[in-house]
Design brief:
By secondary structure, the chain is an all-alpha fold. It has 2 domains: 347 residues, Up-down Bundle (Na+/H+ antiporter like fold), CATH 1.20.1530; 134 residues, no CATH class. It is 64% helix and 0% strand. The chain is built from 20 helices and no strands. α2 packs across α6. The N and C termini lie close together (7 Å). About 17% of the residues have low confidence. It comes from Ephemerocybe angulata. It is a multi-pass membrane protein. This is Auxin efflux carrier. Its main location: membrane.
Length: 493
């Protein structure tokens, strides 16, 4: 249908617009014209105002009783992408060394892509022109992306995936050389590429792996080694967090959108790194005994978890999605906002539906969401610390593997999954927008949400390990997204 040159230009043009928006945020931040307090304020505007308006204005006209059945396939694809991403990161972790303070953050980096500004910006641009149908397909594409956004919010916050990031900062630190030696022992065992290691090497490797992989949980057993009071104290501090609910936010971060991630739901209390605790065994023992006498009951723990789950759903984008879908599916409610041919609704004096002014306002405000989001994305990237003269000390194997896994391997899986669902009939073959959205969202870099969560949980307030993994992905995405968009358009049409 299109020549190769035309496909490349159609695929590249939206990314040029994206790059210009990100570059604006990057350069004004480097020029000290967009300080952190301004970026934080902009992120709150995106989270609480522009994104809900954008979702509201797109979902209501796009969804109806005929296509609501597509919610299931969208949810399935979004969940599969997260599971596959976590699986890829887990495999990388088995073969390449990862900094100790990023051993669980790698799983989040693999599973959670930037489902906010980047896909909305690119997909709206592509669907706004031929071979798509313009505004109708634009509305439909954003409505489909809202399902991916909802899955992102639910799995990262209510379902607790953010706790993986917190687990990186629990327990004693481990030197990179020890981590590298431990992974070498593990790799030899997994690949069987050499003779079995000596007994001393094996014992050393096992001990190092136990430190590296340790997830600290509270324990009431009496046979705890009295020589490890430090870990016992860390256990009590970590597990006590389950009862700390409904606390006010202590750290401002960006939205739970993919790129600009907003304020953490109030139910989450971001704790200071427990590794700063003192090592004095005399002081530790009484604290441990005191904690055991205050251990919450099982019912209280489950009540706390449920409260956290439901409170974390009450973010503005989530509320906008939950409100928009019922309105879109009930014709009488939908007719209050837009014209519905099958419903006879009294009109306002201007001949429009009674609440059309709300839809107009939401469309007007929502239009600022993507440009402002791209500027904040560029600002976030500008504040990442790029390691200089330290390339030899970086986990280059894990960095390159994750970038290739998310931006080369995942799109292959995405195409195969979508084609399989089309053949099974779960995705209608005639719905070109749905196929394109599902394919494109398989090629997303790690969400910059993780930057703010890592800064919140880290005792030093930085994300030095994450930046080395993040920046190569955002460079590679311009090549991989252009190729995937061209291939998807050729495949679908």
């Amino acid at each position: 249908m299109f020549s190769v040159g035309a496909l490349i230009w159609i695929s590249l043009r939206p990314l040029l617009r994206l790059a210009i928006g990100v570059a604006c945020g990057f350069f004004i931040t480097k020029a000290d014209m967009f300080p952190p307090v301004a970026a934080r304020g902009a992120s709150h505007i995106i989270l609480n105002v522009t994104t809900p308006c954008l979702l509201f204005s797109k979902i209501i006209p796009a969804f109806n009783t005929d296509n609501i059945r597509l919610f299931g396939p969208l949810f399935l694809v979004a969940a599969l992408y997260e599971i596959l991403g976590v699986a890829i990161a887990f495999i990388i972790k088995q073969f390449f060394w990862v900094p100790h303070r990023f051993r669980y953050g790698l799983l989040v980096a693999g599973g959670f892509g930037n489902v906010g500004d980047i896909p909305i910006s690119v997909i709206m641009s592509v669907t706004g022109t031929a071979p798509f149908k313009g505004l109708e397909d634009q509305n439909l594409s954003v409505a489909y992306i809202s399902v991916f956004l909802l899955v992102f919010i639910v799995t990262l916050f209510p379902m607790g995936a953010h706790n993986w990031i917190k687990m990186d900062f629990v327990g004693p630190d481990v030197e990179p050389c020890d981590v590298q030696e431990a992974i070498r022992v593990k790799r030899r065992k997994l690949l069987c590429m050499s003779a079995a290691p000596s007994r001393d090497d094996s014992e050393k490797g096992v001990q190092q792996l136990q430190v590296q992989e340790k997830v600290v949980h509270a324990s009431g057993e009496d046979n705890v080694d009295p020589c490890t009071p430090r870990l016992r104290k860390l256990n009590t501090v970590h597990d006590d967090s389950e009862t700390e609910i409904a606390e006010e936010t202590v750290v401002d971060i960006h939205s739970p959108r993919g790129s600009i991630s907003g304020a953490t739901p109030r139910a989450f209390k971001l704790e200071k790194d427990s590794s700063d605790a003192k090592d004095d065994p005399v002081d530790d023992a009484p604290e441990t005994i005191s904690f055991r006498s205050q251990t919450p009951t099982r019912s209280r723990i489950w009540k706390a978890r449920l409260q956290v789950f439901f409170q974390s759903l009450l973010t503005a984008p989530s509320i906008a999605i939950f409100v928009s879908f019922p309105i879109a599916l009930v014709p009488q409610l939908k007719a209050l906002f837009i014209v519905v041919p099958s419903v006879n609704m009294p009109s306002a004096p201007d001949g429009q539906p009674p609440l059309s002014f709300i839809m107009d306002t939401a469309t007007f405000i929502g239009a600022a969401s993507v440009p402002l989001g791209l500027i904040c994305l560029g600002s976030a990237l500008a504040r990442l610390k790029i390691p200089q003269n330290q390339w030899k000390s970086l986990p280059l194997g894990a960095i390159s593997s994750l970038a290739i896994g998310k931006l080369v391997l995942m799109p292959v899986f995405g195409v195969l999954i979508v084609q399989g669902l089309v053949r099974c009939g779960l995705i209608p073959k005639e719905d070109k927008v749905l196929q394109f959205v599902c394919i494109f969202t398989s090629c997303l870099p790690t969400a910059t949400t993780q930057v703010y969560l890592t800064q919140a949980y880290s005792a030093e307030g930085d994300a030095q390990h994450l930046s080395a993994f993040l920046i190569p992905q955002y460079i590679l995405m311009f090549i991989s997204m252009t190729a995937l968009t061209a291939y998807a358009l050729n495949l679908i049409f």
